[in-house]
Write a structure and sequence with these properties.
- The complex is a heterodimer.
- Chain A has no helices and eleven strands.
- By secondary structure, chain A is mainly β.
- In chain A, strands 2, 4, 5, 9, 10 and 11 form a six-stranded mixed beta sheet that branches. A five-stranded antiparallel beta sheet of chain A has the order 1-3-8-7-6, with no helix packed on it.
- Chain B is mainly beta.
- Chain B has no helices and eleven strands.
- In chain B, strands 2, 4, 5, 6, 9, 10 and 11 form a seven-stranded mixed beta sheet that branches. Chain B has a four-stranded antiparallel beta sheet with strand order 1-3-8-7, with no helix packed on it.
- Chain B is globular.
- Classes of the chains: A mainly beta, B mainly beta.
- The interface between A and B is medium-sized, with 24 and 26 residues.
């Protein structure tokens, strides 16, 4: 049972465009929602994370939007650059533990 | 600070053999989690160790086991390898009960 569902599986965006990746979760006990970026041959790296007490968090070109009632959260990458081409994973966990549930990943390609 | 290190980076084994993977967390981090990453399933949680005790466990068969040493270094063992065990095995460390996990580069295991 996939506790975190992620879409789309792949995404192609023009340089300067907005990349949007969506995730949905089932367990209302989740209270920590990170996004990870993974380049080939590397482990995932934490990009940005949000807790459910806020609806939006922005760090540079990266923004998480969080909708608690819909149990959905999304990553927006503004002014997408070719260097952003990577696989992005959303995840969820409970603050009381370190067991993370990951989405299946989105392969983002930003074309010049 | 040095990041999470994993050894070996690549490993080729045959069915029925066993394998041991090693993970050295970031200095000061006491929690170590292990994940299996495959193209079809994404990142699947194996288990988490904190202060030498297994604190969380995912839905993997008993062939997958782990341990943590007093210096927080961790090992993961897979016995009686199957073809389906071919994957990237990732280790992540965090400080105490903090949710922020830092991943290593992974060990690529190929089972022939």
């Amino acid at each position: 049972q996939q506790q975190v569902k992620q879409s789309p599986q792949s995404l192609i965006v023009q340089k300067g465009g907005i990349s949007i990746i969506n995730c949905a979760y089932e367990n209302t006990a989740f209270d920590y929602f990170p996004w990870y970026q993974q380049f080939p041959g590397k482990g995932p790296a934490l990009l940005i994370a949000i807790r459910p007490d806020v609806s939006e968090k922005k760090e540079g070109r990266f923004t998480i939007s969080f909708n608690k009632s819909a149990k959905q959260f999304s990553l927006h990458i503004m002014d997408s650059q070719p260097g952003d081409s990577a696989t992005y994973f959303c995840a969820a966990s409970m603050i009381s533990g370190n067991q993370f549930y990951f989405g299946t990943g989105t392969s983002l390609t930003v074309i010049p | 600070k040095a990041g999470v290190t994993q050894t070996p980076r690549y490993l080729i084994k045959t069915r029925g053999q066993q394998v041991t993977l090693s993970c050295s967390p970031i200095s000061g981090h006491r929690s170590v989690s292990w994940y299996q990453q495959t193209p079809g399933q994404g990142l699947q949680f194996l288990f988490e160790y904190f202060s030498e005790t297994q604190r969380n466990k995912g839905n993997f068969p008993g062939r997958f086991s782990g341990r943590q040493f007093s210096n927080s270094r961790s090992e993961m063992n897979v016995s009686t390898l199957e073809l389906g065990d071919s994957a990237l095995y990732l280790c992540a460390s965090s400080y105490g009960s903090s949710n922020e996990q830092f991943f290593g580069p992974g060990t690529r295991l190929t089972v022939l």
